[in-house]
Design a protein that fits this description.
Blueprint lengths: L2 H12 L14 E7 L7 H16 L4 E7 L8 H14 L7 E5 L1 H14 L4 E8 H5 L7 E6 L3 H11 L5 E5 L9 H9 L8 E4 L5 H7 L7 E5 L13 H11 L4 E2 L12 E5 L1 H16 L10 E2 L3 E6 H6 L12 E3 L5 H4 L1 H81 L5 H29 L7 E4 H18 L3 E5 L6 E4 L1 H21 L7 E9 L3 E7 L7 H6 L15 H11 L3 E6 L5 E8 L3 H9 L1
Parallel strand pairs: 1-2, 1-3, 3-4, 4-5, 5-11, 6-7, 6-8, 8-9, 12-13, 15-17
Antiparallel strand pairs: 10-12, 14-16, 17-18, 18-20, 19-20
This protein binds adenosine-5'-diphosphate.
Adenosine-5'-diphosphate binds next to helix 16 and helix 18.
Length: 626
């Protein structure tokens, strides 16, 4: 039961036998809709009734709207009709109706037959009746309405538009003579007039199961013309709209139909009846009559409810070019652009993407700025490290000069010995060879000092290599040995027995170790009183993956307040100091993934510990091959 019908029932019960006029209220105009079937029997009728009601209510006039469903397709016979008539006569005895709107041909006939008994004086507006049904009748003056004009040739024309080179149409539906609408009955007579180029196969009357099979294997250049099916062939009722859905599930060719509500149920389209237009037109005529126009002044005419309408999805499925459709065709279900379907969501997504892009641009800009700053810092710290190395070299100049002078002196002395030897009458060749060998090795010693100095002074970009820490420490010790000796400091080494391989920049590491040793020497000199003057460099492996270089001294140790600050740039306690050595050392060690720290030793003096990750040669190889 529709909401209206339910509302109406309540209305009837409440006001039973108490006419409005008796209660002293002014009677609003009344419209009664008589449905031939049942407004609930499919989307076609519900859509039509909704449109009708919407148009009536849009007029804003006080109106009573009633609806009766005659259910004629399912309940027939004189007895049923007589009961209906009596029931309605009783029901509307005290409820005068101004306009009766009939839906369907059967409803129109009953309304005319029963009018004098039940709704005497009411005008009748008919809807959903085909033109041929009206032509056959001589309509009374109080009847008007809009007809619909269904023709088989229109369906064939639509089939031509959908299937280029159409060779066959297959008509499916209830048997022609059992169709409710005369128009469909007449399709049988229209068949011979179909173009001789198009064969017509009549599959009407087949049970739906059989029909579903037949329509699944139709020839290429064919189309299915659908006329209403009301039963599955085995006695069960079926709504025509359901039957279209069933057929569309198996059909291998497009289905042409003529009721718009089938378009979402598998039909590709055709000249479609729009139930909404039918309902709207009928309500429009009823309103004219309520405004005082006589029905006889409104001539019966063909309505506007039949229009070419097609389903976009169907057109895609059958590969139909839209330009081949009849002019003025409406295309339903065309997907609207995403921003029209979901405007709010699209706006949000757009805003998010925009924001994200802005963020990315900002991040890239920031990244570039950082990178530039980093490069600048690195360049500066390289520069600084270089300056620090030069300063160190300056500091070492006395001991370097000493180191170079020693071999040079030895060379000179050996040369003089040679001169003496060659002047002797009995040449002692073997001795001369020995002395020349000494000269050679002293020369080598001197040039090694120079090469080492050159290497240290090189202003090169940091470059990591595989190096062995003990070798590196030994090299540095040679360098600073002179300096230690000059200050009467005993320079010792306690190197690990196992090699300690690290992946590092050798010049930078040398610089660190050298700075630590020179600082240790300075510290001992600072504490002039210290009796033991000793610097020891110790290396060892810690755990499986860390190497440590520790520089011990017997200086004054590190006061608590200095411990953190001495790694800061420009912190120095020395009159000629730059205060950069430890700061550079920390930068270098951190860049190598290591750490540096300083402690006071229990027995006095300080220890500086540098820890570096041991080289994971295998890991690096794997990374490279990955
Ligand atoms: P600089 O040697 O030019 O002063 P550094 O950065 O190498 O610069 O050292 C900073 C300061 O740390 C030194 O001035 C000194 O006070 C302190 N320092 C460094 N090494 C030691 C050490 N072995 N014992 C005690 N103090 C130290």
């Amino acid at each position: 039961m529709t909401a209206i019908a339910r509302g109406f029932l309540a209305f009837v019960l409440l006001n039973h036998f108490v006419p409005l006029a008796v209660r002293g209220e002014t009677l609003p105009k009344s419209v009664l809709v008589i449905e031939e079937a049942d407004a609930n029997r499919g989307p076609y009728y519900t859509t039509m009734f909704s449109a009708l009601r919407a148009r009536l209510y849009a007029s804003n006039r006080p109106l009573s709207l009633y609806i009766e469903n005659l259910d004629l397709p399912f309940f027939e016979g004189p007895e049923y009709e007589e009961t209906l008539e009596q029931f309605l006569a009783r029901k509307y005895r005290d409820r005068p109706i101004d306009v009766v709107i009939t839906i369907g041909q059967g409803a129109l006939r009953r309304a005319i037959d029963w009018r004098s008994q039940i709704w005497s004086g009411a005008a009748i507006v008919f809807a959903d009746v085909t033109d041929d049904a009206i032509e056959a009748r001589n309509l009374p003056a109080y009847v008007t309405g809009r007809t619909i004009k269904l023709r088989l040739e229109d369906m064939v024309e639509a089939a031509h538009a959908i299937v280029p080179g159409l060779e066959q149409v297959v008509i499916v539906g209830a048997p022609f003579d059992s169709q409710a609408a005369i128009a469909f009955k007449r399709f049988a007579n229209e068949i011979p007039a179909i173009s001789p180029n198009v064969k017509v196969a009549d599959l009407t009357g087949l049970p739906i199961a059989e029909l579903s099979k037949r329509v699944s294997a139709l020839p290429e250049k064919s189309a299915i013309l659908y006329t209403p099916i009301y039963s599955d062939g085995n006695g069960a009722q079926l709504l025509p709209a359901e039957a279209v859905t069933r057929l569309a599930e198996t059909a291998n060719r497009p289905i042409i139909a003529n009721v718009e509500t089938y378009i979402d149920r598998g039909a590709v389209g055709g000249y479609m009846l729009s139930p909404a237009i039918t309902g709207d037109e009928a309500a429009g005529l009823a309103l004219q009559i309520l405004d005082g126009v006589q029905p006889s002044q409104i001539p019966v005419a063909v309505g506007n409810s039949l229009r070419p309408v097609f389903n976009w999805t169907g057109l895609q499925r059958w590969g139909v070019d839209e330009s081949s459709l009849p002019p003025g065709s409406e295309i339903r279900n065309r997907p609207s652009p995403i921003w029209r379907q979901y405007p709010a969501q699209t706006a949000i997504v757009f805003a998010v993407v925009l924001l994200q892009s802005l963020f990315i641009v900002a991040l890239l800009y920031e990244h570039r700025r950082r990178r530039r700053a980093e490069l600048e810092v690195r360049a500066r710290s390289n520069e600084l490290a270089h300056v620090n190395r030069r300063a160190t070299a300056g500091e070492l100049s006395a001991s370097i000069a000493h180191e170079v002078n020693q071999p040079l002196g030895a060379i000179l002395a050996n040369t003089e010995v040679c001169e003496m030897l060659i002047k002797k009458p009995d040449l002692d060749v073997q001795l001369i060879e020995e002395v020349l060998g000494d000269i050679k090795s002293e020369n080598y010693r001197a040039s090694e000092v120079i090469v080492r100095l050159q290497r240290l002074m090189r202003r090169a970009e940091p470059q990591k290599e595989d190096i062995e820490l003990n070798e590196l420490v030994k090299d540095v010790l040679k360098f600073v040995a002179g300096q230690a000796g000059a200050h009467e400091i005993d320079l010792g080494e306690e190197l690990s027995a196992e090699p300690l391989r690290v992946h590092a920049d050798p010049i930078q590491l040398q610089q660190v170790v050298m700075n630590l040793i020179l600082n240790a020497i300075d510290a001992i000199c600072e504490a002039a009183s210290s009796s033991v003057r000793r610097v020891v460099v110790r290396t060892r492996q810690m755990g499986s993956d860390v190497a440590e270089i520790a520089v011990f001294d017997t200086g004054p140790g590190i006061a608590a307040d200095r411990r953190m600050r001495m790694f800061e740039p420009f912190f120095t306690t020395k009159p000629q100091g730059m205060g950069m050595g430890l700061s550079i050392a920390r930068t270098i060690i951190q860049a190598h993934g290591g750490a540096i720290r300083a402690e006071s030793r229990d027995g006095g003096g300080a220890v500086f510990r540098v820890q570096l990750p041991l080289d994971d040669v295998e890991g690096r190889k794997n990374q490279r091959t990955r």
